[in-house]
């Protein structure tokens, strides 16, 4: 496996773990706000992010590359109102999309076709996650201002269930 690509993928493990940590912070914020559906939605998202990290760990291991675990930074999102996690979430997903694209670009340059194929799933996943994040903002703008509709939106988000990733290595 190309060494530069392996290094970038190793760094990406830490970013996925940070994503998980960040979304646990959001979940905790909504727990404190008494919004169980929003709490659930981000709790599931945090679990998915940990899965992403573990898929990358497995991929590196399968390719006989050394995996290095670095410290995960403290999540620093400043959460003052109910819209803040949603906006911070979308901004974070856009950042992660850029990072995944950078690993992909390095794999492309190195003609590391196996890693490109592995990353295809993540590229698609980022598209879905950006859309989900942006949809949540729109729903909150539409329904978040009134208690009854906020209650219904919160109930809708409570229905999200964790499912293991469809990517099999
Ligand atoms: Fe790891 O999926 Fe988005 O960030």
Automatic annotation (TrEMBL):
A GO MF term: ferroxidase activity
Transmembrane domains' residue ranges: none
Major location category of this protein: cytoplasm
Ferritin-like diiron domain boundaries: 1-144
EC numbers: 1.16.3.2
Top EC class for this record: oxidoreductase
Matches recorded under Pfam families: Ferritin (PF00210)
Positions contributing to Fe cation binding: 16, 49, 52, 93, 126
GO cellular component: cytosol
InterPro entries for the chain: Ferritin, Ferritin-like, Ferritin-like_diiron, Ferritin-like_SF, Ferritin_DPS_dom, Ferritin_prok
Catalytic activity annotation: 4 Fe(2+) + O2 + 6 H2O = 4 iron(III) oxide-hydroxide + 12 H(+)
Subcellular location: Cytoplasm
Keywords: Cytoplasm, Iron, Iron storage, Metal-binding, Oxidoreductase
Domain of life: Bacteria
Annotated function: Iron-storage protein.
Family: Belongs to the ferritin family. Prokaryotic subfamily.
Protein name: Ferritin
